[in-house]
Please model this.
Amino acid sequence: MLYRLLYNLLIHLGLPLALLALYKPKRGKPGFGARWAEHLGRVPPTGQEAPLWIHAVSVGETLAISPFIRALKAERPDLPILLTTTTRTGAEQAAKLGDLVVHRYAPLDYPWAIAAFLKRFQPRALWIMETELWPNWLHACAHHHLPVTIINGRLSERSCQRYGRFQGAFDALSRPLSLLLCQHQDDADRFHRLGIGKERLAVTGSIKFDIQFGDEVQSKGHALRQQLGQERPVWIAASTHQGEDEQVLAAFDRVLRAHPSALLILVPRHPERFDSVAALCASYGCVRRSQHQRQAERVEEGDKVYLGDTMGELPLMLAAADLTFVGGSLVKVGGHNLLEPAALGKPCLTGPAYFNFSDITRQLVAQGGGLVVADEHELGNRVSALLADGGARRTMGEQARAVVLRNQGALARTLSRCLASLDGD
Model:
């Protein structure tokens, strides 16, 4: 109780700052328009009766949960689904599910906002994609006897240690959770160390392993590669963060010394950084995807950087490259998911700060499908060596894809456990 009182005091004092951070206009990032009030619990009705509430915070989680929702609707076509996201980009991805779901923005974690949301929709259960835990959400769900299931749950060692320092707060936070379906045994072990009983834990794997790219992605990737230059060496640095682009470009300088015709596809993680990264790359000769896709012209060899400044097109850019580096890992962000390039059969490189995806990264490295580079110098050297050795690239790509195939089946396992909990089994 004391933890919640203190928490609520702090979040209400910080409400103006929270709203400013959420709604402040950012270049290249879409706004919420008239729907902004949904974050405060002022949500229009959906016409659904007792929907299943599924929450996916942003675009990455929405992409991951989409195949699961399609499988769920195939199994239970009459089940009404209310899908919430926090971000606008997540909402855009949710729209691609069409009439399989009704989308609303999730309430912020204020007691009055979540109370208004639950009163409006009266959902039958809440399924949360990954470990998005909010104290007032969970408290309100417990008060309304609403079962809560975590899908694709993960808990890094660093987060586990942080929660452990506030064990009482974590106990209060986790008590309303009915079921945690964890990605890996490491995650389940950490949750158990924090006091969650094994009867509420299960290891179902990561549904992100069940990723499948159709012929369209491969076809578009091939078409893009033709425009970039079929013969020139092409590598991609995906999901980079502030402070990381400079390191990638320093590595690229090394690559260019060995491969003067090489091209770097650079894809910043956040849309609001597109313009600043374009300015950073100007001296290399920078072509922006948003402009180039309208022109459909061949990229000149004098242009060395292809900036991925569009949303939802990362897979086709990965498909167009010879090898991949996944960002958030040369800076202390914790890395990003290597499964998309692995599923496409691409060699996967990451920096040393991959702690949010340690299990996946370790599997790829152990299998020979991935490499961890210590810094920008090693990144440049490894990329240069792999671009010069097609056989090594093919072997790494095959091993990376083998890891993905070996881990598939999580979607079916997760769906089975979720439906059993929904049915009260």
